[in-house]
Amino acid sequence: SYVLTQPPSVSVAPGQTARITCGGNSIGSKNVHWYQQKPGQAPVLVVYDDRDRPSGIPERFSGSNSGNTATLTISRVEAGDEADYYCHVWNDGSDHVVFGGGTKLTVL
Amino acid sequence: QVQLVESGGGLGKPGESLRLSCAASGFTVSDYYMTWIRQAPARGLEWVSYIDKSGSSIFYADSVKGRFTISRDYAKNSLYLEMNSLRVEDTAVYYCARGGKWLIRDPFDYWGQGTLVTVSS
To answer: Which residues contact B65 (CB under 8 A, 6 or more apart)?
Structure first.
C-alpha cells in the first residue's frame, strides 16, 4: 500500500518560516492536498493540487511537490497557525485515498 | 452556502450496527464525489469510503471493506454510511466531506463538523 510520511512535529518561532514535508514514493507524480486541523474542529483545506490556495487562505501558505517529497510552507508564521497539518493524495494503484500521519505545528 | 451536517453517531456494542447520515445543502450531492473520513481519539485522519457522482464507483478502506456501505439519496440530498459488525477500533469521529466535481483525485473542499461513534461493550 502507498504510504505518506510526515514528521510528527515541527516547531517554529513567530515570524519565521515553517516547512512541513510529506514523503511518498514518486509523490511528485501525484496531486497533493494539505489540510489544517485545529483542536476540536474539522479539517480545512489550505493547499490543493500541490501549490494552489482556496479562496480565503492567506498567501503565507504555499506548497511544492517534486520527486519523493511534497512540502507545505508557511511563511511569517503566526500563533494562529498552530495546528495539525495533513497531506492527502489519491493513489491510483490501490484506488484508495491516503493521508499522511499528520504534523503538529507548534509556534514557540 | 455549502454545508454538511452529520448525524447518527452514538454508542454501539461490538457486532452491532449504526447508520450515519450527512445532509448536504448549498450544492447537489449527485454533482460531486463524496467521502467519509474518520479520526480516532488523538489520532490522525483515516479515509473510510468514497462514492463517485453516479454511484457506480465505490471504494472502501481495507479496514472497513465488507462491513461498511456508503450510499446516497438524491431526493434528500444526503450521504449515508451503514456500519455493520462494529468493532472497538471503529471508535472515532466520522466526517463526511465533499470531493471534486470532475476528478477522484481532487481535494476535499468542504467538511462536516463530524459525528462521534463509540463502540464499547
So the answer is: none
